[in-house]
Every structure is written in structure tokens, then in C-alpha cells.
Amino acid sequence: MAYQSLRLEYLQIPPVSRAYTTACVLTTAAVQLELITPFQLYFNPELIFKHFQIWRLITNFLFFGPVGFNFLFNMIFLYRYCRMLEEGSFRGRTADFVFMFLFGGFLMTLFGLFVSLVFLGQAFTIMLVYVWSRRNPYVRMNFFGLLNFQAPFLPWVLMGFSLLLGNSIIVDLLGIAVGHIYFFLEDIFPNQPGGIRILKTPSILRTIFDTPDEDPNYNPLPEERPGGFAWGWDKTDHD
């Protein structure tokens, strides 16, 4: 019975969020079981372009380090904000969501050539958080009962928390930068006088991912607690 409930809950996760989160968990499990090593996954331009280890362009986004607090923290935020984006502003627009993934991944890979980062998954998570926070500017948030703020400050609060944990903030800054570029090109610039829509989802992605029929049993994830867990976030309050 429990298996069936878990299976149904898992299948209710929208497809892109389900695929990415599952890939991250399975990659970490494979490393923990010593089936593969991080050295086979990390971003290395020389190995990619000179030795044609193309898989590294993808796997460096799938590994968040060994199982521990940092891994769980990243998985919680990745799952919650990826899902809330897909069920919110990208609902019924799976192709556009996939295109955002590709655009963000491309920019991060490009910047990764110059900032010497070996894993970009955390930056990708921050990008998702940034886009969600800018599209939900009036959501009020609470961080561990200590800070109250509006959603657009969330990426910066996370960067400060990362700094307190002794982590490099370069990863967070990269995620914020790429998230802002996407948000500006998609949400701001096209609505300016003389602005045009630069980001256009390729028709092949629409053919593959967009379906005209919507599942009547679709059950979106509730957004009452954007962090998803009582230990980190309080209820939202829309102005």
C-alpha cells in the first residue's frame, strides 16, 4: 500500500522536475555505491573538447556532493522550486521549461570555462530559485524563523547562508547572474518600448514536449510553504 502511494505521488511530479531530480539522486547513489566516481562526472573543458567526453556537459549538473546536509539542502530546493516553476508559470508549457533548462545550462557551461567550477548543479538550482522569486515578487517568506522578507530576496539570503557555511559564493553568483539574464530576456525586455522576444523555443521542442490535452487529475503542488518544510519556511502571503 505504501509503495503504491509513493508511486502515485512520484508520478504526480511534473515530467521535467521528476526527470532532473531523479537523475540527481541516482547519480549521487551511484557515487555512494562506488559504481562511478566524481572524477568521471566533473566539468573539464579539456576532457570534453579534446577527449570527447561529452557526457560531462550533463553529469556536472547532476552531482551535488556526497550525501549529507549540503546534498539534502540542495535537493530540497531543487525539487521544490523546479516543481513550483513547472506547475506555476510554466504549466502547460513544458517545451518552454526545457528550453529554459537548455539556455541556462548553456550559459553556465560558457561561464564555467572562465571561473574554474567543476560542478554546476548548485548554480542551476539558484537559477531556478531566482526565476521563481522574480515571478512571485509579493510572496512573503521566513527563513528559519529569523528573517522575514519578500521572495525576490531569497537568492541573496541563500547566498548569505552559503557564505556562513564557509562555501564559495561564486556558484551562487553564477546562478543569480544566469537567472537574471533569462528573466530579463523573457519577462522584462519583450515588454519594454521597442523590445522584442529574443528567446524563442525551437519548434522541435514544442513537437516533442507540448501536448494539447491536460490531465483532469493533475494535482499541482501546494505553494502555501514555498520552502516545503516547516523547519525552513513559513506560509506565503500574497499582497
Automatic annotation (TrEMBL):
<dbReference type="GO" id="GO:0030968">
    <property type="term" value="P:endoplasmic reticulum unfolded protein response"/>
</dbReference>
<keyword id="KW-1133">Transmembrane helix</keyword>
<keyword id="KW-0812">Transmembrane</keyword>
<feature type="transmembrane region" description="Helical">
    <location>
        <begin position="100"/>
        <end position="133"/>
    </location>
</feature>
<keyword id="KW-0472">Membrane</keyword>
<keyword id="KW-0256">Endoplasmic reticulum</keyword>
<dbReference type="GO" id="GO:0005047">
    <property type="term" value="F:signal recognition particle binding"/>
</dbReference>
<comment type="similarity">
    <text>Belongs to the derlin family.</text>
</comment>
<dbReference type="InterPro" id="IPR007599">
    <property type="entry name" value="DER1"/>
</dbReference>
<dbReference type="GO" id="GO:0005789">
    <property type="term" value="C:endoplasmic reticulum membrane"/>
</dbReference>
<feature type="transmembrane region" description="Helical">
    <location>
        <begin position="54"/>
        <end position="79"/>
    </location>
</feature>
<protein>
    <recommendedName>
        <fullName>Derlin</fullName>
    </recommendedName>
</protein>
<dbReference type="GO" id="GO:0036503">
    <property type="term" value="P:ERAD pathway"/>
</dbReference>
<comment type="function">
    <text>Functional component of endoplasmic reticulum-associated degradation (ERAD) for misfolded lumenal proteins. May act by forming a channel that allows the retrotranslocation of misfolded proteins into the cytosol where they are ubiquitinated and degraded by the proteasome.</text>
</comment>
<feature type="transmembrane region" description="Helical">
    <location>
        <begin position="153"/>
        <end position="185"/>
    </location>
</feature>
<dbReference type="InterPro" id="IPR035952">
    <property type="entry name" value="Rhomboid-like_sf"/>
</dbReference>
<dbReference type="Pfam" id="PF04511">
    <property type="entry name" value="DER1"/>
</dbReference>
